[in-house]
Amino acid sequence: MHRFLLATLLLPVLIPVAVCAQDDERVWAFRPVERPEIPRPRDSARVANPVDAFIVKSLETVDLTLSPRAPRRTLLRRIHLDLLGLPPTPVEIDQFLSDTRPDAWVRLVDRLLASPDYGHRWAQHWLDVVRYADSDGFEYDDPRPHAWRYRDWVIEALNGDKPFARFIHEQIAADELFPENRQALVALGLHRLGPLRLNAGTQDKAKNRQERLTEIVDMVGSAFLGVTFGCARCHDHKFDPLPQADYYRLQAFFAASQAVDLPLVPAGIRASREKARKVWIKKRDAIRKRLEEVEAPVKKRLLAERRGRFGKETLEALAVDASVRTPDQSRLATAAERMLIIVEADIREALPEAKREQYVAVQAELQGVLSSEPAAVASVMAIADRGRDVPSTHRLVRGEPHHPGEEVFPSFPAVMVQRGRPVRPSSFGKGPALRSTRSATARVGIRQDGEPSWPGGWPPNPIPSRQESLSTGCGSITSDRALLPRRTILE
Q: Which end of the chain is more exposed for a tag (fewer CB within 10 A), N or C?
C-alpha cells in the first residue's frame, strides 16, 4: 500500500523546504518554488503579461529585443501546429483573417483546446515521456492487446481537463485511491509500459522482477521528478545528490506490486460473460471435433499418396533432422514439405459427393458459431499489491539482485524530502508519498506541458529532458531561471 503514500507526495501544491544547501547551484531545482519579483524592463510597451516581462528583461541584459510581432496568418499556423499538430485549412485561415473582433485570438485558442484533436496531439508528448508502446520490445516483440486502453485514457484525460493532481494519483495508485472507479484503474497501465523480456533470455525470476521495478523507478524519476534515477542503480549518482540507497528506497514503494490484468466490469457481469463464453467454447470445440473426424482419414490418405510420388533421395531428406541436413537435402525437403500441405479444398475434392455436402454443411455451421463469439471480458494492464507476501527491499551491490546489501524502507531521497517531515517506513499506501517532492514535480510538469507550445522550446532548457537531470539540465545553463517558478505558480 506504499504507492498511495507515493502518489500524494507527488502533488505540486504545498511546496516543501528542501534540506539541500541553499547556496549549492547543483541542486537549485530541488528548492521550494517561490514567487519571484516581476522585473521591470525598459521596453515595457512589449510586455503583455508577467511572462513577457521576464523574457524582455532577460533579452535586455544581452542587448537584444523581441522580434517584430508575427502576422496573424503566422500566428494562426503556429497555434494550430502547437495544439493540434495540423496546419489550418484554407477555410480556417479565411475565417480567422476576416474575424476583426478584439477577442478573436482568445476565441480561436478556446476552439482549438475544445477540439478532440487536442488530446490526440498532446497525448503524444506524455506517451513519449512514459515510454508507451503497443508491444513488449526485444526480438520477439509480443503485442500488448490491452495497452491501447491506457493511451485512450491519456487522450480523454487531456480532452476532459482532468486536474494534474488527479492525473498523477490515478496513474500511481488508482487501485488504492479509487478502487471502485474502473476507468481510473486504466491509468495503472503506466506501470506496464516498459520493455519486457519474458519470452526469451534470462528466466531468473529475481532478475526479471528487478528489471520490472527498475523500469518503474526510472519512469517515475524522469516523468514526475525530472531526475535520472537510473544512474543511481549501481552506484551513487555522479551529478545529482542521490546516493545509491535512495534509489532503492524509492523502489521500495513498488516492492509489493505485481503485474496483473484487471477486469473493467463488475463481478456479476464478469461471471455471466465467462459462463456464456464457456458454453460457446464447448459448442465450438464439438463442431471442430466433427470436422476433424471427417478430415483425419482423408488427410492420412492424401499424405500417403503424395509421399508415394517422392523419390528415394527426397524421402531420405525428409527423414533427416532439419538442423543437420545438407544444402541439397534442405532444398529437396523444403519442396517436398510444400507438397505435403493439405488445405480444405483438397479435402473437399477427395471426399465422395454425399460426404462432401455433409462436410460443407458442418463448415458453415462452424462459421456461424465463430461469428457469434461472446465478447471477452474487458481488462486492462495494471499492477496490484500482493498483500502480506512482500519481499524486503535491499540496496543491491552494483545493482545485482543476487548480491543484496542493507535493507531499506520506502522513503524519498533526502534532497527532496521536506525538512522535519520524513516518510515513515511504517506508513502504508503509495499515495501520500510524494508531497515532499512537489517543487520538483511542479517544475517538471511545467516543462512537460509548456515546452511543445513554445516554438523552439524554452531558451535555454529550464527543465531537463529525460536524458538530463534537474541539476545538470538546469543548474548551470538556465538563463531565465526566475521565469520557471513564476510559471509554476501561475499554473
A: C
Non-local (6+) Cβ contacts of 338 within 8 A are none
> Are 469 and 440 within 8 A, CB to CB?
no
Residue from 30, 19, 96 nearest 472 by CA: 30
Quote the CA–CA distance of 121 and 112 in Å, as a whole number.
11
What nine digits make up the cell of 126? 506524455
- Cβ contacts of 268 within 8 Å, gap of 6 or more: none
Q: With beta carbons less than 8 A apart as the criterion, state whether 227 and 467 touch.
A: no
Query: What are 415's three cell numbers?
Result: 534532497
At 74-106, the pLDDT tens digits run 999 999 999 999 999 999 999 999 999 999 999
Q: What is the chain's Cα-based Rg?
A: 31
Contact of 110 with 72, CB cutoff 8 Å = no
Mean local confidence (pLDDT), 283-298: 94
Q: What is the pTM of this model?
A: 0.72
> Each residue of 297-329: pLDDT tens digit?
999 999 999 999 999 999 999 999 999 999 999
Cis peptide upstream of residue 68 (ω within 30 degrees of 0) = no
**Side chain identity at 48, as an amino acid letter?**
A
Check residue 310 and report its DSSP letter: S
Q: Strand pairing partners for 135?
A: 143
Output b/e per residue, 225-263; b: 16+ Cβ within 10 A.
Answer: bbbbbbbbbeeebebbbbbbbbbbbbbbbbbbbeebebb
